[in-house]
User: Fold this.
Amino acid sequence: MHLTKFQLKQLRDLTHSLKPIISVGQNGVTENVLNELGIALDHHELVKIKIAGEDRDARQAMIQALCDASKAEKIQAIGKTLTLFRRNPKKPKIDLPKK
Assistant:
């Protein structure tokens, strides 16, 4: 799903009030993390994730792995916090503008 700049801005605005509900620990992107992420994206559509680790390149690799495995769009990544969005086709929760 390709999001327009206007839709990305709206989703970024919505992320400010969210708390991280998934944490990627020292073990990295595991099967359990991916399962929880899939459930959270199906339920919430917009999910904030905390990623552990000091190495910037390792965090970027984890972000890419999370996006690829979940088929979600990266909304923003600030420091160790990542926000992903994936539309629930059966029960959409977030009303995105058409622009």
The beta strands are 22-24, 46-51, 73-78, 81-85. The first strand starts at residue 22 and ends at 24. Helices lie at 5-15, 31-44, 56-70. The radius of gyration is 13 Å.
